[in-house]
Amino acid sequence: MTNPRVNKSAGISWWWVTLFIVLTSCFAVLHLGSGDSTWWLWPSTALDAQILMDIRWPRLLLVCLNGIALGLAGAVIQTIFRNPLAEPGIIGISSGAALVVVSALYFGWILPTAWSLPVLGMAGALGAFGLLWVLAGRSLQTIRLLLAGVAIAALGSALLALILSLAPNPFAFQEWTLWLMGSVANRGWEHVLLMLPSTCIAVSILFWQRHFISAHVFASSQFAVLGFNHHRAQVAVLFGLTLLVGASVVSAGMIGFIGLIAPHLVRLVGIHRPRALLWWSAAVGGSCLVAVDTIVMWLPTRQELPLGVITALFGAPILLYLLHRFAAREAGHA
Amino acid sequence: MLSVDQITVAQRLDPVSFTAAEGEVIGIIGPNGAGKSSLLEVLVGSVLPQSGQVLWGGENIIGARPMRRRHLVSYIPQQPSVFADITVTELLYEATVNLGWSSVQQHDKIAQVLREFDLQPFASRSILRLSGGEQRRVHCACSLLNQGALVIADEPTAGLDLYHQLMLLELLVKRARAGALVMIALHDLSHASMFCDRLALLDRGQFIQIGTPNEVLTATNLEKIYRVQVDWFCDERGVAMRPHRIIDTP
């Protein structure tokens, strides 16, 4: 008997890997060179070199890390909730982080240092994680987790809307609204340095728990005999998700759709095995967000568009196409 | 030796005690809501009992480490399901998680269960595109892959055609004869009498009786517990019955 697993991945992946690398590289080069056609990767003056090192590279790395974090978080959440429509915002972590950041700006809790706001945001994400843990109960059943997450997300969104409505300064209101839709404009190395360790730790945790995550292809009734310490593994996975989503929100705001769409794009090319889905979603998420930010940078708009606008503009039609494809397949199957 | 000692589950199971040895096939029978699945879920470890203990060779397996249960218990749940559009072989690979097998061992065991469960024609097909009965066979194959010494099957024949029902039950008997203890919840009393060495009869969470099929499948038990009258025939090959009337209860 041949091993279908080896055959399948070798047969499909190489074309996609090549295409993926070429496309990502093209977008990365376009991203670095946007706005000025006289230089690309080799700046001729000291000022160009400074722009490249202090603005372009951190922005590219930050947007790539954000895409990786959201793509991976989306795949993990869809797998553990066994729901293809789940996305990172569903567990309330992003609302918690955003609420604390906006509250800090509103009440002036921030210290005069670039680190204070991201650190507060991460504290908000961890607070939401703690609340999720308490509300979901010790059993951490999927349905209770989901309901607790939805409740936290709804509460966070409501409080955010309240704070935004009460904002005394209309410019602050506009700025916060734009931030909430996701942006990596005016970010520097400090944001990359916040995002990088969080992402690395989270990826390590999720890699450690990859078998537990992929075991969610089976019904929950089978978990008792699959050899996992369910509670410990669940907490570890949620903590990993908190780091990914929290760091993403504090460094770039709430970027929608990437976490939802990236796993579906991976499935679209025939990769369905949960473990492969996780890492491919991370890679596709990173690549897509680089592409989206490149579009944002090249678009001749008066003010830079939030990333969330472009991801929604591209993501919604893709989602509708997937829905149509799913419905057609169901009809054919019936 | 399995020793179930005074196991209770709130509102589902009153104290249950019995012992069973390796090599036996124990059928758990009873009408809907009798507590069959609850009893099996306690043995599997997915439900914690209010009181009592389950000893396997003197070791209480209720609080056993997950990896201990992984190697000890093979479990076919009542309603298995799968949540990914993956092939049968890929799902079987997922089912080898935490078994510590080399890739050669994985390959050999998967090839073996594909043969045993008559799944070779579907090996490369998506699990979601199989019929309900075919999916059920795949789940049974996944569950029995780990060759556990304690095999627990909750209505494993549901949804299978007659050929595959018999094939699965014969396979479970073969496992028992090879040294495993097999416990099966069944609704088909003919199958229970044919394939099980002993039957444990439950009703509304209460343990009624355990014994050979001839001892348990009496007209009195069937009328009292199942509320059906049967024509029944008993010989050295087992019990055969033909239900012919529902007994109305006030």
Automatic annotation (TrEMBL), chain A:
It is found in: Cell membrane. The chain crosses the membrane at residues 12-33, 57-77, 89-109, 115-136, 145-168, 188-208, 237-265, 277-299, 305-323. PROSITE patterns: PROKAR_LIPOPROTEIN. It is a multi-pass membrane protein. GO terms for cellular component: plasma membrane. GO terms for molecular function: transmembrane transporter activity. The keyword Transmembrane helix applies. Keywords: Cell membrane, Membrane, Transmembrane, Transmembrane helix, Transport. Pfam families: FecCD. The keyword Ribonucleoprotein does not apply. It comes from the Bacteria. One of its GO terms (biological process) is cobalamin transport. Belongs to the binding-protein-dependent transport system permease family. FecCD subfamily. This is ABC transporter permease.
From TrEMBL, chain B:
It comes from Pseudidiomarina aestuarii. Residues 2-229 form the ABC transporter domain. InterPro entries: AAA+_ATPase (IPR003593), ABC_transporter-like_ATP-bd (IPR003439), ABC_transpr_CbiO/EcfA_su (IPR015856), P-loop_NTPase (IPR027417). It comes from the Bacteria. GO terms for molecular function: ATP binding; ATP hydrolysis activity. This is Iron ABC transporter. Gene3D superfamilies: P-loop containing nucleotide triphosphate hydrolases. One of its GO terms (biological process) is transmembrane transport. GO terms for cellular component: membrane.
